[in-house]
Design a protein that fits this description.
It is a single chain. The chain is an all-beta fold. 0% of the residues lie in helices and 50% in strands. It has a six-stranded antiparallel sheet, with no helix packed on it. Strands 7-8-9-10 form a four-stranded antiparallel sheet, with no helix packed on it. It has a four-stranded antiparallel sheet with strand order 11-12-13-14, with no helix packed on it. A hairpin with a 5-residue loop joins strand 8 and strand 9. The radius of gyration is 18 Å and the shape is globular. The structure holds beta-L-arabinofuranose. The site of beta-L-arabinofuranose (FUB) has 14 residues, from strand 3, strand 7 and strand 15.
């Protein structure tokens, strides 16, 4: 691993990137990283992750900011300066839980989970930037989803977490999220306002972490199931369902109660990006690490169960 200090020609602006070569799972070995959301843009993969900062031996979620890593070959990676913190949302108390970045019309929208200051429970915010590595700023000045918007479905205060966004072939964007109940809603073209009532998807033993992707004519909705979490999935030919449950995609991740996946296609291959708790000696459910393994499909479009490996894709 080595650090590069770049001084932009415009003068005082300094940027500190860290570059490293992947040597197997976990991908990042010098800090704890969780809830990976991968994005493919202009022949590069970006991984957005929360920074697990819980000091051992404590066992609780301590996440204040997110990080971003990029690579054009999945081998050599660059960590860019922290592009976003939970407190960049003036209405948030903190707690940088799971998130996802998506591009639309040259802008990058980062949907995040945070704890609201004034409204009890978790909320979803959205930040925007002109570049996938930021700088990002709050796009609305308020949460797009708050806990009080979903109390008719569940009374828990942490059900509005883990946003994932998908733009369908007709240009309609959808926001999915949830814990114990999977929710979804249409987004306006501006990506920062809802364009439908909140709807639900009923998925067997849904815990959290929905992720939507498409391959050919099939939509896939993968999600964390039960606790400790396995990743399960359902398939449909329509984003609005009906979804057909297809079973387990990934077993419980080593040494971690959570598993939080994202799925991407890059240069003709499919990848399953998730976290485990495998860093010795302090790794675990609250000090997690991003991993990457290959994802394969069967002829009928179903996905083969992921084989988690120490070697990873390298
Ligand atoms: O990192 C905090 C929470 O743990 C995430 O929001 C969930 O998906 C689980 O991974």
């Amino acid at each position: 691993m080595f650090s590069v200090a770049l001084v932009a020609c415009s003068g005082l602006l300094a940027q500190n990137d860290t570059t490293f070569v992947a040597t197997g799972n976990p991908l990042v070995k010098y800090k704890y990283t969780a809830d990976p959301a991968a994005l493919v843009h202009n022949n590069k993969v970006y991984i957005y992750a929360g920074h697990d900062e819980c000091p051992p031996p404590q066992q609780r979620y301590v996440l204040n900011k997110w990080c971003v890593f990029s690579s054009s070959d999945l081998k050599t990676w660059t960590e860019h300066p922290t592009p976003l913190s939970a407190k960049d949302f003036s209405w948030a108390k903190g707690e940088a839980w799971a998130s996802q970045v998506i591009e639309r019309n040259g802008k990058f929208y980062w949907y995040v989970t945070v704890q609201h200051k004034d409204i009890h429970g978790k909320s979803i915010g959205v930040a925007v930037a002109d570049s996938p590595i930021g700088p990002f700023k709050d796009a609305r000045g308020s949460a797009i989803i708050t806990n009080d918007m979903t109390t008719e479905y569940t009374k828990i205060s942490w059900d509005d977490i883990d946003p994932t966004v998908y733009i369908d072939d007709d240009g309609q964007a959808y926001l999915f999220w949830g814990n114990t109940q999977c929710y979804y809603a249409k987004l306006k073209e501006n990506m920062i306002e809802l364009d439908s009532p909140i709807m639900t998807v009923d998925l067997p033993r849904f815990t959290e972490a929905p992720w939507v992707h498409k391959r050919g004519k099939w939509y896939y909705l993968s999600y964390a199931s039960e606790f400790p979490e396995k990743i399960c999935y359902a398939m449909s030919k329509n984003l609005n369902g009906p979804w057909e449950y297809k079973g387990i995609l990934n077993e419980i991740a080593g040494n971690s109660n959570t598993n939080h996946q994202s799925i991407i296609e890059f240069k003709g291959e499919w990848y399953f990006v998730y976290h485990n708790g495998s860093i010795n000696v302090d790794g675990g459910s609250f000090r997690r690490s991003v991993c990457i393994d290959k994802l394969y499909y069967n002829k009928d479009g179903t996905m083969k169960r992921v084989q988690m490996t120490s070697e990873g894709i390298w």
